[in-house]
Amino acid sequence: MSLQLVKAGTTDALTLTGISKRSFDSDIEVGAPSKIGPPGYMSVPFHTKMARQGHLFKLTDEGLIVGGALLFLQNNVLNIGRIFVAPEHFRKGYGLFIMQEVEKMFPEVKEFTLDTPAWNLRTNSFYSKLGYKEIKRDKEFVFYSKNRTLE
């Protein structure tokens, strides 16, 4: 496996939109109330705008795009807006690679934040295993944070 997480260009928006749609639509299999993903998850203009602003990243394996992420850096805090992997590539370690690579790519970041739907047991378990701590929850979302221990 030759994995790379790199900034996506606007030319990647169509491919990443398709992967995002299929990935989030598959949540219906793990408790989603309907096929509904996060805002813009199936919009090419949204992903194009995110690429243009430098927030869209693509995960490639041997050059093939297999997943993506939306990352927002502000004042040494990185919000992981979302990560997604093509359903045919679930359970191959890609999500773990994305999360580990994000932490490596931003050495100046002191805190990583993210949120995930409360009903999604798969993602809540995943983020907890990676050391993210629940900081709050509401009816819809669980909010997580992970502080970097600077040696």
Give me a quick take on this structure.
By secondary structure, the chain is an alpha+beta fold. It has helices at 13-25, 44-52, 94-105, 121-129, and strands at residues 3-7, 56-61, 64-74, 77-85, 111-117, 133-137, 141-147. The chain is 28% helix and 33% strand.
Q: What is the 3D form?
A: globular
Number of helices: 4
Helix/strand/pairing category: alpha+beta
Q: Give the biggest sheet.
A: 7 strands, mixed
Q: What's the β-strand tally?
A: 7
Radius of gyration equals: 15 Å
CATH C-level class is Alpha Beta
Find the CATH superfamily.
Gcn5-related N-acetyltransferase (GNAT)
Read across the widest sheet, the strand sequence of neighbours is 1-2-3-4-5-7-6
* Structural domain tally: 1
- Low-confidence parts lasting 5 or more residues at pLDDT below 50? none
CATH architecture: 3-Layer(aba) Sandwich
- How widely separated are the two ends? 30 Å
- Determine the strand fraction and express it as a percent band: 25-35%
Fraction of residues in helix: 25-40%
The helix/strand series, from N terminus to C terminus, equals: EHHEEEHEHEE
Residue-averaged pLDDT:
94
CATH fold type: Aminopeptidase
Q: Any key phrases for this structure?
A:
151 residues; alpha+beta; Aminopeptidase; 4 helices; 7 strands; globular
Descriptive account of the structure:
The chain has 151 residues and is of the alpha+beta class. The chain has a single domain, classed as Aminopeptidase, CATH 3.40.630. 28% of the residues lie in helices and 33% in strands. It has four helices and seven strands. Strands 1-2-3-4-5-7-6 form a seven-stranded mixed β-sheet. A hairpin with a 3-residue loop joins strand 6 and strand 7. Helix 1 crosses helix 2. The radius of gyration is 15 Å and the shape is globular. 30% of the residues are buried. The mean pLDDT is 94.
